[in-house]
Write a structure and sequence with these properties.
Residues 131-346 form the Radical SAM core domain. With 365 residues, the chain is of the alpha/beta class. The chain has 2 domains: 42-107, no CATH class; 120-359, TIM Barrel (Alpha-Beta Barrel). It is built from 12 helices and 9 strands. The chain has helices at residues 28-31, 42-47, 53-59, 81-84, 97-100, 168-177, 197-208, 222-225, 232-240, 259-270, 289-301, 325-338; strands at 129-133, 136-140, 184-188, 215-220, 244-250, 274-280, 305-310, 346-349, 358-359. The chain is globular and about 55 Å long.
């Protein structure tokens, strides 16, 4: 039985020790049984993600749990093989597996969980652009992701109506120019690193041409699930930017960061890129102090500073991942006791129509 809910308040979820090369997929033999000397690029890994539930269950020796799953009509299974390699075979409660496996609990309708939990459709002044925060705008570069996280707050987002076409680039630049208070642009999606370097560089060039823009922030999960995405061409281009480059990765559990992943992140840091992490609190996955301590310590060892610890956005289909705010506050106090201040992310909640992340009050619960 897959159990998404915590069995006890401070249970321990095993943390896999870092082992050099433990999950690196560097040959077709690893994924398809081909030549073991043929190097696999990030592009081929994206093209070779697992989308078939039966195939995933066979790989993980979990065919007996199929009756607890379902096949979503739209937001289906999508997970890179390298991420699967970090999962423990035979463990239906593996914390990485639970993030991507479609569970029948998603079909349960729960009051208060909606398709657009952050009311982003109301913050959309032009196609492909969200302007919610005073000094920042967000560009939905693409709707594509290498991995489908089952708690994703944009899983119902209308990307067809919000993806910027080539001619839209000038419209977005004009909008930014008309708003001199905007000093930072967030590249998001989808995952902006799922597009080609050529396409990404076009965005960088366009934004760098705006004198008011001092910082470009890239929100991405690719460096965690396919770390080879941080290829030399990309890192060199980011290093050469006249703007400060901030990369916010998304990691929920220490097992997501093996030695291979850590080395790629450290290379990015060495190029002068500011690396931050945001985590979503997920019931049954990272809702214990042991898991949070291990995660933030491992992030720091990989050159990444903890940034945000988010309460779950109440998106339709993800209620089984949610945890009570009181439980989150109690967990946070334990983190404060066990971690140095620079390794404690801000505990926040994003609420619709608020122009900032809302800090969770630690004293009112």
């Amino acid at each position: 039985m897959i159990n998404h809910l915590p069995k006890q308040k401070n249970r321990q979820i095993p943390i896999t020790p870092i082992v050099t090369g433990s999950s690196e997929i560097n040959s077709k033999e690893n994924s398809k049984g081909g030549d073991s000397n043929e190097v696999i690029t990030w592009q081929t890994q994206v093209a070779d993600v697992i989308t078939d539930i039966d195939q995933l269950l066979v790989i993980l020796e979990l065919t007996h749990i199929k009756s607890e799953l379902y096949i979503p009509e739209g937001f289906g299974l999508r997970v890179p093989r390298g991420f699967v390699a970090k999962m423990k075979k035979g463990d239906a409660n593996d914390p990485l597996l639970l993030q991507v496996l479609p569970n029948k609990l998603e079909q349960v309708k729960v009051s208060g969980y909606v398709a657009d939990p952050l009311a982003e459709n109301e913050q959309n002044p032009t196609q492909g652009l969200l302007h919610k925060y005073h000094s920042r705008v967000l560009v939905t570069v693409t709707g594509a992701c290498a991995i489908h996280c089952r708690y994703c707050f944009r899983q119902h987002f209308d990307y067809q109506a919000n993806l910027p076409k080539s001619e839209q680039l000038d419209v977005i630049k004009a909008y930014i120019s008309q708003h001199p208070e905007v000093r930072e642009v967030l590249l998001s999606g989808g995952d902006p690193l799922s597009v080609s370097n050529r396409r990404l560089f076009l965005w960088l060039e366009a934004l760098e041409a705006l004198p008011q823009i001092s910082t470009i922030r890239i929100h991405t999960r690719l460096p965690i699930v396919i770390p080879e995405r941080l290829d030399p061409e990309l890192l060199s281009r980011l290093e050469a930017s006249r703007c400060r480059i901030v990369m916010v990765v998304h990691t929920n559990h220490a097992n997501e960061i093996d030695e291979n992943t850590a080395q790629y992140l450290l290379q990015a840091k060495q190029k002068g890129i500011t690396l931050l992490n945001q985590t979503v609190l997920l019931a049954g996955i990272n809702d214990s102090v042991a898991v949070q301590v291990a995660l933030n310590e491992r992030l720091f060892a990989a050159g990444v500073l903890p940034y945000y610890l988010h309460l779950l956005d109440k998106v339709e289909g993800a209620a089984h991942f949610d945890m009570a705010k009181q439980q989150a506050v109690e967990l946070y106090w334990q983190m404060l006791e066990q971690l140095p201040g620079y390794l404690v992310p801000k505990l926040v909640q994003e609420l619709p129509n608020r122009p900032f992340k809302t800090p969770v009050d630690l004293y009112q619960h």
